[in-house]
Amino acid sequence: MVVRIRLSRFGNKHQPFYNIVVAQARSARDSKPLEVIGTFNPIPQRPTNLSEEQARTAKAYKEISLDRSRAKYWLGVGAQPSGSVWRLLGLAGLVQESKNVQN
Amino acid sequence: MAPRIQNQIVSNSLLPYLSSSSTSSSFTSLSSRPRRSCRSFSSTVAPQTRLRNQMFLWLRQEAAELKHHTPGETNYLTSKAEAARGYVGDPRPFPQNIHYCSESILSEELRTEIYNRVVKQKKSVRAVSVELKVDMRRVAAVVRLVELEKRMKEQGKLLALPYARAIHEMVPTTPLRHYDPSTHEEINDLPVHRLTNPQIFYPVSESRQFNRVDAGRVFSAAPALEHEQAAKDAVDPSETISRITQNPSHIEVVGKGEDEHQVLQPADVRIPHPHMVASRREQALVPQERAQQIKIYQARLQKEEEADQERKRRSEERKEKQTQRVQPEDSRFEFRINDVVVSQETTGKDGRNARAPGRRYGVPSYDRKKGQVKIPTRVEV
Description:
Protein name (chain B): Eukaryotic mitochondrial regulator protein-domain-containing protein
Number of domains of chain A: 1
Order of helices and strands of chain B: EHHHEHEHHHHEHHHEEHHHEEH
Organism (chain B): Aspergillus sclerotiicarbonarius (strain CBS 121057 / IBT 28362)
Strand order of the largest sheet of chain A: 4-3-2-1-5
Distance between the termini of chain A: 18 Å
Region (Disordered) (chain B): 19-44, 299-381
Largest sheet of chain A: 5 strands, mixed
Family (chain A): Belongs to the bacterial ribosomal protein bS16 family.
Structural class of chain B: mainly alpha
Number of helices of chain B: 15
Number of strands of chain A: 5
Radius of gyration of chain B: 30 Å
Number of strands of chain B: 8
Shape of chain B: extended
Strand content of chain A: 35-45%
Number of helices of chain A: 3
Largest sheet of chain B: 2 strands, antiparallel
CATH class of chain A: Alpha Beta
GO molecular function, one term (chain B): structural constituent of ribosome
Distance between the termini of chain B: 34 Å
Oligomer: heterodimer
Strand order of the largest sheet of chain B: 1-2
Structural class of chain A: alpha+beta
Radius of gyration of chain A: 16 Å
Helix content of chain A: 10-25%
Largest interface: A-B, 29 and 26 residues
C-alpha cells in the first residue's frame, strides 16, 4: 500500500487548519497517521507591529511549519505527496515545483 | 479644534429632580394637583408617603448642593458629608459602601506628557513609568491609544469627545506636576505567584541562613543552593539581581516533561522595577550627593535597557533564522515556513506531547463545550 504525505483537516467550521501528515493512502483523512510532520494554516494572517507605511504595503502571510529532515526522509523512502502538499513542499524547496500537479 | 476637556461649571442634567426649572414648581404643584395625576399607578390612598416626603425634603435641602459641580472635582455624596467634617477628597462615592473607592484616571495633561516623553523624547517606557509614577502597562496603553486617536483624527473620524469630557468632569484625575509628580498608582506591585499558594512546612537548621532565594527554591521544589554559590550571591545582591533580570533565559529549570518550570525567583527580581531597589540599597550604603545619585541611577537604567534591547534583538534574530519567507510570483500571499522538530523528545512516548507540531490526536478539544469561557480575561503585556 502506498504511503502518502497529505493534509488532514482540523479546526472548526470556517476555521480550517491542517496537519501535514504521513499516512497510508487508503486510511481515512482524519485518522491517526503514521507521523505528523508539520502544519499549514490556510487563513491569511495580517502582519502586526509594523509602521503605517509598512502596513500598507505588507502582504498577508500563511504559516507553514515543517520538519524538513522528516519530510526528506519520507520522500526518500517513496512517500507520495498529494497535490496540495506537493505545492507546500515545493515552496519549501524539497520537491520540484511544477505547474500541472496531479490531484 | 476645541479642547477635549472643558473647565466650566456645568449643571447636572443627570438628576431630573434637580434640574432648575422643575425643582420648586413641581413640588408646589404636587399638593394642588388631584391625587391620581401624580401617582397614577399607586393604590395608596395618601397623596404622598412619608418616605417620599423625606426624599423630596432631602432633595430640596441637602442635595441642592449636588446640583452643580465643578469640573475636575468629584461631586460625591460622601465628599459633601466629609467636607462638613473638615475632611476633603474622599474617593468613596457610595456612603453605604465604604469599600468602594473610585480610582483616579490620568488627566489630559499627564496623558499628553506621557506620550511626549515616550514618542518625542524617545525615553523608554520603564524610565517614564518611574518618572511619572504610572504603571508600565498603562504607559504603553497611553502611547497606543494616543496613536490611535491621532490616526482617527487624520482619517476624519468622529471622536467621542462629549463622553471624554463628561468622564473627566465626574471622576477624580491625577494632575501633572513636573516637580514631585503625584503617585497615580503603585508601580512596583507584584501579583501573587501560583507556586507560592501552598503552605509548606520546611525545617531548616538554625545554623543556616534562610532567605528569599531559598524560599523560592523550596516553593518550586528545587534542591537547595550550594553554600559556595549562596555566599557568592550574597556579596553583591544588586549585581546578582541585575544578572538574573538581564539574562532571564539562564534561570535554572527544574521538573521533567510537562512539569518543567523555572525556579521561582525572589520578589526583588520579579518586581517590575528591580533597579529601584538596587539604587536605594546603594544610597543607604554609600550616601552620595543628589546629582551623583541621579547619574548613577541613569547609568544603571541605561545598562538595564541596553541589555533588554540586546535580548529582544537576539530573540528576533533567532526567530528570523528559523523562518523561511517565500513569496511566489503568482500569489497574493507570503508563505512563512517555520522549522519544527518531530522526534521522540517532542512527541513523547504516546505522541501527545504539546511540544510536537500539529493538532493532537485523541486529545479532546473542549472549545465547543458548554461553560467554556473564550473571552480573554487578561492581557499579557
